[in-house]
Structures are given as structure tokens and as C-alpha cells.
Amino acid sequence: GAHAPLLAIRDLQAWYGESHVLHGVAFDVSEGEVVTLLGRNGAGKTTTLKAIMGIMTKRSGSVMFDGRETIELPARRIARLGIGFCPEERGIFSSLSVEENLMLPPQVRPGGLSVEQIFELFPNLRERLSSQGTKLSGGEQQMLAIARILRTGARLLLLDEPTEGLAPVIVQQIGRTIMRLKQEGFTIVLVEQNFRFAASVADRHYVVEQGRVIDTIPNEEIERNINKLHAYLGV
Ligand code: ATP
User: Which residues belong to any copy of the ABC transporter domain (predicted)?
Assistant: First the structure.
């Protein structure tokens, strides 16, 4: 039978102070899927992730996670339900070691990955355990940022431009990591500017424009929609 989606968003609106930025975002994500939010700068992609996570405190509409309405919950309660947000700037503390960075957020849910499980997914981090945050490459910092939310027990990962500023070979590594996480059953919402990368990892793409989702493109239809996509993204 049909399963309810793990994440179901309807009429999501959000404001920065008086500035109304999200005007009714709606989309679904099933368990184990990878979806992307594509769109131009300022379209509202990052704000959508922040609204799901409860970091945007002024918001309305409906965000159902695992059958539960979260729109009224504070961010720490949303985290405890199993949602983790990885911001674009990654949030790695340069004065702390890899291990300290990893241990920084509390394990908010049973089922958070152990350090051993994390090393299995991110073998590079094992060798870097006592390195300082600043000594890591951009790619290693991104891996650490993802590893850190896995430790908290998140099963829905909200990743904001994980490939930003990374060399192509590292972008491929991040892609393999995302596919591995998908195999392990994690659900991922990814904000991306790089739609080539998006097409290599995602099941479906949602196009965000002016604070709304204006189109849905299944990944297998991306080539057929390439001109439309170029127009949406202004590339
Ligand atoms: P980008 O790739 O540039 O981050 P985006 O699609 O993620 O694009 P958002 O960052 O969600 O876009 O921004 C949506 C709108 O909200 C933009 O008009 C932006 O200027 C505005 N905005 C973003 N952050 C703030 C803030 N802290 N205060 C006020 N307005 C903001």
C-alpha cells in the first residue's frame, strides 16, 4: 500500500522580521529518498531548510515529520525527533579537534551513530581525529559536518550546498557519501546550485522560486527538461 511520506510540507510560510520570504512551500519526501531544492540565489532554499528545522521562528503552515506536526515546535524538539541541519558554512570549530567537533552536539535520539559507525562511513576522519578543525580541507570539513549530525541520531538530513567551493574530485566523494547514506536508509533534502551534482544523487528535484515550489522534476526526466531547468536557474 501507499506509505505516508516521512516529510510532508504544505503552505509553509516564513518571515525574517517583517520580511515575508516563504509564500507557501509544499513538497513531500519519502523515507530513504534523496531530493534536491534547486533555484536561483535568494529563491528561499536555505530558508526552507531553516523553517523545517525550526530555526526560522516566525513560520506557519504545516510540516509533518513521521506523522507528527512540527510547525509549533522549537528547534531542539525538532532535532530530537530526528531531523538534522547542516548549514552552508558547515559550523566546524577551528580551535577544536575533529573528535571534539564530533562530540559537540548532544546525542538527541537513541540510534545516533557511534564513533565506530561514523569512521566506517568516513574513514578519513579516523586518521584526522586529533587534528584541529582548521587543518581540515573543505571536503573533510563537510564530511565532519555530516558525521556530526549523524551522531545526534538524525534520520532526515537537511544539507545546505554541501559541494559549495569544493574541487570536482571532492564533490564526487560527497556524492558517494550521500549515496551510501541513502543505502543505509537515511532521507536527505539537499540544497544545490550544481544541478549536475544534484542529478547524480537525487531521486527528484523541486524547483524553488520566490518562496514557492513551482515545479517537480523526477531525476530520470532531468535531461528532457534541461532547457526548462536552465531557464529556472538562469544559467
Ligand atoms: P542562496 O543560495 O543565495 O542562499 P536561497 O534560495 O537559499 O539562496 P535564502 O537564503 O533562503 O535563498 O533567501 C531567501 C530570501 O530571504 C532572499 O530574498 C534573502 O535576501 C532573504 N534573507 C535571507 N536571509 C535573511 C536574513 N537573515 N534576514 C533577512 N532576509 C534574509
Answer: 7-235
